[in-house]
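quick one, 340 residues, struct below
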Amino acid sequence: MMLAPARFALGLAVSAAALLALVAWSFTVGRFAVSPHDVANVLWSSLLGEESGLARNVDAIVLQVRAPRVAAALAVGAALAAAGAAYQNLFKNPLVSPDILGVSAGCSLGAGLAVLLSLSITMMQAFAFVGGLVAVGLVVAIGTWIRGRDPILTLVLTGVVVGSLFGAGVALVKYVADPYNQLPAITFWLLGSFTGALPRDLPVTLVPIAAGVALIWLLRWRIDVLALSDDEARTLGIDVRQLRFVVIVAATLITASAVALAGTIGWVGLLVPHAARLVTGAAFARVLPLSLVLGAGFMLAVDTACRTLFATEIPPGVVTAFVGTPVFIALLALTFRRSA
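---
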């Protein structure tokens, strides 16, 4: 049987090659097909600061439409997968997803309020980001105040309660929204979409995602220790409470940034870490990089399918649910058979 490090190296290499091929393919397909040669010409000329010599509409489609959308899909998929892997290690539960502490509900309420106030797309993303941070901050504050015997269970239960509260706020916003203009915009955002990804929006979102992922990567060996009991982790010199807080902050920053950019997209953070563990084992130092690559590829494949398979674009949140349910059941069955 192949050792875990060898499986990790092989899985990462294959996944990275498939991701590069998927990125190249996603630039060429769509309502307006662009040949691979023209895509390469436009991208290379843009890097050199020169004119590509092609029609302006080709340059606009590649640089202004597809490039930011591809970058956003890659970033959101990698971010949700990384956050899911971190949360699952933190809570010692493979069924945990990035919205376990109410991040998605907080982001949804913030975005809904921005639509209700007729604010711009940029302000809607800002409101969503702040809403997600407020939700998790409230969860952590209440969990710290309660101080139950099991801090992880306390956080999970508090996250469920706060998520329900913010979900009620979203329902109230939808109820009072204008049914002809505001309500469709809120519903559209809640289903997730990359159509609003613009070049100017990407740096504001990608920087927090990169910072959160970098922090989790620096703590990857300590996060592995969280799989042990708190007493065992303390004997190894780990401040469990402080480490748990830092991981929550980093994963929340990642999730809130991703949701603020693309809306609520489920299943990525739950499904992808499972697939990574099947390939490389449970070591978080190997699960994290493989989850980043697999999550980016999965999200880009879903978004490309959403905008090319049908005459009308489908929200990626719907597709991830349809794809994620049977795949997750298959992964669970495979995992249980291996452990049997």
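The chain has 14 helices and no strands.
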